[in-house]
């Protein structure tokens, strides 16, 4: 080999070594990348699988939601703020939240119509559901009264423990955001709670006659938080029963 050739040979050797090193590194990088990607794919599949399993499990449950009042019965009101509109908004947020988690949801009304109380009872019992929750807004002459109350009723002690438990959970969950005052639970003979054959409760979502509550009720994000909190209560109740 001539000096020039030897130099060329040496240069080629170094060049190929460099190429090999680079290629090797790339290979390593690529295999590491695909390992990470592979892991991510497996995790996504697992997550997806787990998620759909949860959804499938949740689809065993039917939750019936009732937006208080409707149509010619606007419920309580303050100015142009009507109970029937607030309850429908809250219930629709609840429906969206629960359906996203895979639960079956039945609404006693999904538009501005009046469903007679007896018919609400019929719809609840025909739905073959697990939990029934009615949403209302309170009012009273004393403007200082504020906060959320959950009402329950156990006709002749029917489902007494279950209904009390549901009311307590709903009450405690519903006040979890936006500084709602917890007025506790109250037993009250209400037609729809009397008609219902399944565990049920009625959440009175604040007082329209109280300035601070009214401010809350005028904000969609507060209504959404409230709806999601009530749903968390429903889910907690369902999971505690198993
Ligand atoms: Zn009402």
From TrEMBL:
GO CC list: outer membrane-bounded periplasmic space
Entry-linked InterPro entries: MurNAc-LAA_cat, N-acetylmuramoyl_amidase_3
Record-linked Pfam families: Amidase_3
Source domain of life: Bacteria
Gene Ontology molecular function: any one: N-acetylmuramoyl-L-alanine amidase activity
GO biological process: peptidoglycan catabolic process
Classification via CDD domains: MurNAc-LAA
Domain MurNAc-LAA: 121-235
Protein name (record): N-acetylmuramoyl-L-alanine amidase
Organism: Clostridium fermenticellae
């Amino acid at each position: 080999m001539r000096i020039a050739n030897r130099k060329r040979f040496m240069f080629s050797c170094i060049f190929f070594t460099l190429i090999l090193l680079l290629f090797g590194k790339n290979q390593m990088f690529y295999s590491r990348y695909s390992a990470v990607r592979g892991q991510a794919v497996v995790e996504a599949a697992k997550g997806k699988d787990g998620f759909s399993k949860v959804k499938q499990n949740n689809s065993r449950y039917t939750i019936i939601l009732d937006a208080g009042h409707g149509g010619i019965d606007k419920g309580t009101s303050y100015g142009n703020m009507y109970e029937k509109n607030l309850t429908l908004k809250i219930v629709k947020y609840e429906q969206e939240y629960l359906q996203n988690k895979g639960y079956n949801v039945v609404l006693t009304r999904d538009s501005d119509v009046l469903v007679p109380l007896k018919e609400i009872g019929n719809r609840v019992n025909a739905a073959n559901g697990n939990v029934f929750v009615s949403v209302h807004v309170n009012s009273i002459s004393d403007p200082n009264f504020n906060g959320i109350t959950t009402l329950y009723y156990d006709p002749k002690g029917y489902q007494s423990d279950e209904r009390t438990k549901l009311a307590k959970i709903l009450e405690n969950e519903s006040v979890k955001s936006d500084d709602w005052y917890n007025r506790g639970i109250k037993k009250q003979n209400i037609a729809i709670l009397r008609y219902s054959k399944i565990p049920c409760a009625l959440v009175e979502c604040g007082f329209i006659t109280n300035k601070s509550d009214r401010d809350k009720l005028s904000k969609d994000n507060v209504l959404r938080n409230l709806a999601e909190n009530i749903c968390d209560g429903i889910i907690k109740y369902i999971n505690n029963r198993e």
